Amino acid sequence: MSALLFALLVPEPAGGPRSAARDRLADGVAVGLALAYGAVMVPLGDATGPGAAVPWPVDVAIGTVCCLALVFRRHRPVGLTAVLLPAAAISVMATGAVIVALFTVAIRRRTPVALLLAAAFLATAPIYYLLQADPRYPLWVDLVMRVVTGAAALGWGMFVRAYRRLTASLRDQAARLRAEQHLRVDQARLTERARIAREMHDVLAHRMSLVSLHAGALEVRTDARPEEIALAAGAIRASAHAALQELRAVIGVLREGAAGRPERPQPGLADVPDLVDSARATGMTVEYSCEIPAAGPSVVLGRTAYRLVQEGLTNARKHAPGAAVRVRLDGAAGADLRIRIVNPCPGTASRAELPGVGLPGVGLPGVGVPGAGMGLVGVGERVALAGGRVEYGPHDGDFRLEAWLPWPA
Length: 409
Description:
rod-shaped; five-stranded mixed beta sheet; Heat Shock Protein 90
């Protein structure tokens, strides 16, 4: 019952799936109420008296036509009310239709227009009184009845209009909130994809640089022994397999329906020693020192530090293979987490050989590892997201990458 009343008071937007049925129901209720009010007033008023202006069947017929005309009230409320007002001067039955029409005007038009029509409805009372040969009641009774019913129609109509405006504003606000929520969801997806893209760059660049170095060494060493070729091929296979696994993980996240899957654990500060050992296993000379308390920083900060070290080692392997790389981490809670990676500038590194193979990886044509130049840009973005700062560039014959990440106490 409450849902039906709400649907009558606050219709759905035009064109909705139930708006037409609601309008038909509202029209039926309006016509029924007008007929019921008129039917009550006919025996109470002067229509059945001997001195009535028109016989009561004619009064009822006029009032019935006026009530049925209310089906047009939604499209032309002011015009319909103006047409019905003269009928209210001769027919008691028509007063119900006029009251419903005034109610509709109060909903759909400005208040001054509704008040003007209500005054015209009140003005029909003296005309009706004068047309009766022997009025049953004095004029003031008719005036009071029309004032009370007209005021009730206007008051109720103004309330419904205000209620509909409030509901419409709430609907608009809800629609805006839904649209904003969709935008936030889309932005979150874009942010997550950008993060995944950064992870892809960091991981795949590290893996594929190893593949490129070993493959380049095999290309220039046509006189390599079979066991050396086998070892180099094994290193290429292991690096390619690891890169493929990482790529599959990324693609799995990007696929539809993968959003609800748990994300793979990401490496952190505790995994930096393994990263250094992996670099040493490829033939790099890495001096590593870590002076960080055992408790360590947050997971996010540790992940950022890991990616910075990974990018620094990858750049050193690309541009200065065979040279010693110094990696130092220090800091404490309440201060900064400092990450420093130093390697000789390109061109100053000596000849390097792949581990256990004896295949040169530097100074020979075709062995250089291509780079997109986006690694350091990604480093800057990561550090900025963590609220820190980064410096990199040549310094005293070395290339230095240094970052300071805030470590809350």
